[in-house]
Design brief:
single chain, 117 residues, mainly alpha, elongated
Length: 117
């Protein structure tokens, strides 16, 4: 950190700081991933200039990100589902549904084969 006044402010309030190495986004991959998803899924946020509008939009985005958007890293469930313990059941139900759908497709196509010469 190059700003002495910022460093003093952080120390005065006992705020610990951790910064990745410059030019090395993998040091903070989790936040880089979040920013990438937010910028891609809600590009209008970058154009907002009013702090009040941005705060309202971020509240909406936070709700969508945590309760609606499915996350690949946790098996295509929402963070709220995973946090509240519903993730394993949702993934299990999904696997069972896919198995049943596959069996139904195979049965349908087996019963309705066209006779080709």
């Amino acid at each position: 950190m190059t700003s002495g006044s910022t460093r003093e402010f952080m120390a005065l309030h006992a705020i610990a700081t951790h910064y990745g190495r410059p030019g090395t986004p993998t040091d903070q991959a989790h936040i880089e991933s979040l920013f990438g998803h937010v910028k891609y899924d809600w590009p209008h946020l970058c154009a907002l200039t009013d702090p009040g509008d941005l705060a309202r939009e971020l509240d909406y985005v936070r709700e969508q990100y945590n309760t609606v958007r499915l996350h690949a890293g946790i098996g295509y469930v929402t963070p709220a589902d995973e946090h509240e313990g519903r993730g394993p059941q949702i993934r299990s139900d999904r696997r069972n549904g896919l198995r049943k759908a596959r069996a139904a497709r195979i049965a349908y196509h087996s019963a309705n084969r066209s006779q080709q010469p």
